[in-house]
Amino acid sequence: MTTAAASSPRTYQVRTYGCQMNVHDSERISGLLEQAGYVRAAEADDNPDVVVFNTCAVRENADNRLYGNLGHLRPVKDKHPGMQIAVGGCLAQKDRGDIVRKAPWVDVVFGTHNIGSLPVLLERARHNTVAEVEILESLDVFPSTLPTRRESTYAGWVSISVGCNNTCTFCIVPSLRGKEKDRRPGDILSEVRALVDEGVLEVTLLGQNVNSYGVEFGDRYAFGKLLRACGDIDGLERVRFTSPHPKDFTDDVIAAMAETPNVCHSLHMPLQSGSDDVLRAMRRSYRSEKYLGIIEKVRAAMPDAAITTDIIVGFPGETEADFQRTLDVVREARFSSAFTFQYSKRPGTPAATMDGQLPKQVVQERYERLIACVEEITWAENKRLVGETVEVLVAVGEGRKDERTGRMSGRARDGRLVHFDAGSLVGQIRPGDIVHTTVTYAAPHHLNADGEPLSHRRTRAGDAAEAGRSPRTPGVLLGLPTVGAPAAAPAPATGCAAH
């Protein structure tokens, strides 16, 4: 090996599956690896030095997807000595050492509670030439104290809690993410301010159940207070949150949404089922009447609110009457969008052993009817916006057909996806900029605005995108090993900072 090759930094790729929590965890994984001296590989690079799979375990096919991808990577690794493969996330927390048993070419397995250990485990595996498996049962450090390489110049995730105290019978997440752990409000707001200082315009407050935030320090109104505090941060233009649980939803949160100008009038609140009997079997401690009552209050305070949801079809024991009740609630709620799922049996959950598991063809047929019902409503709701002016935060990757259609894409304040024509401003509008435009066409899942934009505001986020800069939040340095030559020592700290 030449000296140049020996001293060149090792490259990495992170491949992410699953929810927003996993996407944000992957930003932390990237931040950790770059702090340790690794460099992100180009997307076209098919043989980086390290490949990290950040996995999901919610759906039944998660296992097959992971092991299929690991199988495809084995011959690549065989041709590139020194390449390492790491598996983390929820599936790693669940399968643990079974991953190395099924795929012995994997070098590192780490869980949801010890993301910060990854650089150490990679170095240990290289040195010992043996797989390293480390799964902790509880957090060693709160994830947001870790360095983070942000993917977006204009929008950022901010975790307010991790884990979940609910016991939904279909969900494996609490056993993999643990009990709820809340961050202190001051730490959250400091992270939000740090992102805004980097030019970020929008933050999404993230938790398995955001509106139970405060349970650890005994303040059931903490989440509403946090929303209002975000309203005092200069330069922060949009605040979103996901996901709240209907059982914990309080009127003060609705008031905070309505009265805090930078909190967006969009709400993602999982329904799961419209049948009270199914909700009871799911151990969801609310009923359809309460759910619809929350929506009624939200719309009374914010008539323009866009409400989205999650719905599961085919839960064990679901009857045709139960399913019809779900359709009834969908029609009454008038969702602007819905994430719909066929029930997926997950070993280790109470629902997996319940009587009344439904045949695949029954679930599929109900699922198709649900999709048709949802799309009929979302299309009708979107059509009401034709002719309206919308404020669009220009995004990257939201419009898969943009290159072919000549449009750009972004999100309106209510979260709806908007594809727009840049008109005479083509080449001047950057991701992260703000555009006002008029809706000319509505589809079930998006809006089009094909006239000349009414206005265009250049932003610091757009400047960062144009310069190719990504926000980085440093977290707390953990004394992690680095790859390659050590960085120069910092100047000595003085006063309290030295302690």
What form results from the Cα inertia axes? globular
| Fraction of residues in β-strands | 15-25%
Question: Alpha-carbon distance between the termini?
Answer: 43 Å
Structural class: alpha/beta
Largest sheet: 7 strands, mixed
List the helices and strands and how they pair.
Elements: H1 3-7, E1 11-16, H2 20-35, E2 39-40, E3 50-55, H3 62-79, E4 84-89, H4 90-95, H5 98-102, E5 108-110, H6 118-128, E6 132-134, E7 148-149, E8 155-159, E9 161-162, H7 173-177, E10 181-182, H8 185-197, E11 202-206, H9 222-230, E12 238-242, H10 251-259, E13 266-268, H11 276-282, H12 288-301, E14 306-313, H13 320-333, E15 337-342, H14 360-383, E16 389-394, H15 402-405, E17 407-412, E18 417-421, E19 434-438, E20 441-442, E21 447-449, E22 455-457, H16 460-467, E23 472-473
Parallel strand pairs: 1-2, 1-3, 3-4, 4-5, 5-6, 8-11, 11-12, 13-14, 14-15, 18-21
Antiparallel strand pairs: 7-23, 9-10, 16-17, 16-19, 17-18, 19-22, 20-21
Helix pairs in contact: 9-10, 10-12, 13-14
Structure characterization notes:
The chain has 499 residues and is α/β, with parallel strands linked by helices. It is built from 16 helices and 23 strands. The strands form six sheets. A seven-stranded mixed sheet has the order 20-21-18-17-16-19-22. α9 (222-230) runs parallel beside α10. The longest helix is centred in the C-terminal third of the chain and has 24 residues, at 360-383. Mean pLDDT is 88; it is low at 1-5 and 476-499.
